[in-house]
Amino acid sequence: MILKFRSTVVIAAIGLMFSFAGISAKATNLITNGSFESLSGGIGQIGYNGSSLLTGWTNGSSGGNLGYNFVYSAGSADTTGANGVYGNVKLWGPNDGSANGLPATSPDGGNYIAADCAFQTAPISQTITGLSVNSKYTVSFWYAGAQQYGFDGATTEQWLVSLGGQQLSTAVLSDQSHGFTGWQYTSLTFTATATSEVLAFMAVGTPSGVPPFTLLDGVSKNIVTAVPEPGTSLLLAMGLAAMLGKRRRKP
Questions:
Q1: Beta bridge partners of 224
Q2: Which pLDDT value is given to residue 25?
Q3: Do 7 and 96 fall within a single domain?
Q4: Among 7, 203, 220, 250, which residue has the least CB neighbours within 10 Å?
Q5: Helix (H, G, I), strand (E, B), or coil: what is residue 234?
């Protein structure tokens, strides 16, 4: 009988602990313009000639040159393309000779980022505030691999994503010549070390001579923390021990 009582208490306490953990989970709107819809100056290389400015985001530099990162509107990647410092850039797609399945929009819809993975690579970034030190935050997004129009050869693409000093990577996508990998959805979890940290996306890929492009959209508007505070678990454990001790003292 005592064993049954103890088992019941343990199950109830574990359930209560997970209940508290669930209550502590929260989604906070910390990311600005994660769908890249707020844009001034039209589509093109981000920040080139003072145009194509994405609200909340900054295009980095590589060797003094602006990162070769572009923003496309729905349907423009394989039709009109987008202008940058070296002219117009398009991607292989159904509208320029490749039946690779590149859709007009991403699953998130509207604008998306296309970043050269092997030429003038530099991150796009924004500063995230309102973080809690030692809490875990999950960033979710859509990404894909493509290739610049006019070039041939198989490519690979991925994103290196960092929050503060911690860097994680997506899976590597392999793309055939003139190809498109299809959109993939992924989530990466970071531990905050400060209340304000830089969130950055850096495209990497191979080879440099056949421009691989990594695409990005739908960076989660909410980054989620779901970690119970250590004090909560400690209090629950103490309460469980007290309940069992009290039961043992009864005749």
A1: 27, 138
A2: 53
A3: no
A4: 250
A5: helix
